[in-house]
């Protein structure tokens, strides 16, 4: 007899040209186990293990596009250069061999880059206006329009390479206060050219990237766009305070050619706009205002929320997913991403789908310190 979880989550889903075996997605999680930016066999085995245990779609850790200021973690994987791309090709092979699907998360950290850090220590920190997430001016350089064109091209080239080496789609990291999100957010985008001003103008950089990516990949190649209200170190930040404002932000990005949105919330059961007489979370609202498929995420299967303590290995116990299943049964979203619970337990999907929740492993220090 199939479990309630299996009825909700074991159904396949079509995302453009990708046929996902079920609704369970591994959330993108930076691990920094790729020396010189090259993912090795251990990284391939790590993702392959999760595919083998029934994770339908893997979104990889954020991986840097080809721009010197894109990142600041030496061992985070890059998405350019022969060695890195060859490493990624092997990761794709390991996941496909187990019947899974996989998309890289393409990343540029923007003004969050800490000066002097690898992989290119001399590269400046750059953002739409040189303004830091806390509003400090002059924290880095404001991008010129030539820089913007170069970064748009870097995302497009990465997407083209992703399709070439066999990935099933790409995810653009437009969340958490990184570069694309810095353009979307009023506090960090003070530009007076076509990339700044009102909410619609602030979406231009994101929409340009989506359009440039679309031009370089096959028509059905899935392009996911991850966004969030919250920013690193600022969990109360908001891009949109009403459904109409959310529509203003996501509408132009959707029209540019996004296949699906990945709505990054921290607790999936939180109503996003409680004044609007609805219990929909940010994912449910994203689906409602754009009509696109949506991935939800946030504390699935765990009793403590994601935050900076997570990286010090602050633990979280196993929690029931009944509330999530109810939302699936109400058809609020299409897919669910699981972060820390899947780090702790590579077998999370199989256990949940076969009614073995009592065997799930809690999230502990070791979950983040090792690549298992
Ligand atoms: C170790 C770790 C690294 C993360 N790195 C990324 C990342 O590279 N890109 C991203 O969009 N989110 C990243 N996140 C956020 C997760 O994708 C996810 O949204 C968050 O952990 C909430 O889901 P959870 O409650 O199921 O863990 C990271 C989270 C963790 C725990």
Automatic annotation (TrEMBL):
Keywords: Flavoprotein, FMN, Iron, Iron-sulfur, Metal-binding, Oxidoreductase
Record-level Gene Ontology MF annotations: FMN binding; iron-sulfur cluster binding; metal ion binding; oxidoreductase activity
Alphabetical list of Pfam families matching this protein: Oxidored_FMN (PF00724)
Gene3D superfamilies, per the entry: Aldolase class I
Cofactor: [4Fe-4S] cluster; FMN
Residues in NADH:flavin oxidoreductase/NADH oxidase N-terminal domain copies: 11-300
Name used for this protein in its record: 2,4-dienoyl-CoA reductase-like NADH-dependent reductase (Old Yellow Enzyme family)
């Amino acid at each position: 007899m199939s479990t309630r979880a299996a009825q909700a989550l074991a159904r396949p889903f079509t995302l453009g040209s990708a046929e996902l075996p079920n609704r369970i997605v591994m959330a993108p999680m930076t691990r920094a186990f790729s020396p010189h930016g090259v993912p090795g066999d251990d990284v391939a085995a790590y993702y392959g293990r999760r595919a083998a245990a029934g994770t339908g779609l893997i979104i990889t850790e954020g991986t840097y596009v080809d721009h010197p200021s894109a990142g600041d973690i030496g061992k985070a994987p890059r998405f350019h250069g022969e060695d890195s791309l060859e490493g990624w090709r092997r990761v794709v092979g390991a996941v496909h061999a187990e019947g899974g699907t996989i998309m890289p998360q393409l990343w540029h950290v923007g003004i969050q880059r800490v000066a002097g850090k690898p992989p290119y220590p001399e590269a400046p920190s750059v953002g739409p206006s040189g303004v830091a997430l806390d509003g400090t001016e002059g924290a880095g350089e404001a991008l010129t329009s030539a820089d913007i064109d170069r970064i748009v091209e870097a995302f497009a080239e990465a997407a083209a390479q992703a399709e070439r080496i066999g990935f099933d789609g790409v995810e653009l990291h437009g969340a958490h206060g990184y570069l694309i999100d810095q353009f979307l957010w009023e506090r960090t985008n003070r530009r007076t050219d076509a990339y700044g001003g009102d909410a619609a103008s602030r979406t231009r950089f994101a929409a340009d990237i989506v359009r440039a990516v679309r031009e370089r990949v096959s028509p059905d190649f899935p392009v996911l766009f991850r966004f969030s209200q919250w920013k690193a170190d600022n969990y109360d930040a908001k891009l949109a305070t009403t459904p109409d404002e959310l529509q203003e932000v996501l509408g132009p990005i959707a029209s540019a050619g996004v296949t699906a949105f990945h709505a990054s919330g921290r607790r999936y059961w939180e109503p996003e706009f409680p004044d609007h007489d609805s219990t929909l979370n940010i994912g449910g609202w994203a689906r409602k205002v754009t009509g696109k498929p949506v991935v939800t995420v946030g504390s699935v299967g765990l009793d403590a929320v994601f935050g900076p303590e997570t990286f010090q290995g602050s633990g979280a116990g196993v929690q029931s997913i009944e509330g999530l299943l109810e939302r699936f049964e109400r058809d609020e979203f299409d897919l669910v991403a699981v972060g820390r619970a899947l780090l702790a337990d590579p077998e999370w999907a199989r256990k949940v789908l076969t009614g073995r929740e009592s065997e799930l492993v809690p999230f502990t220090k070791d979950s983040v310190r090792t690549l298992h």
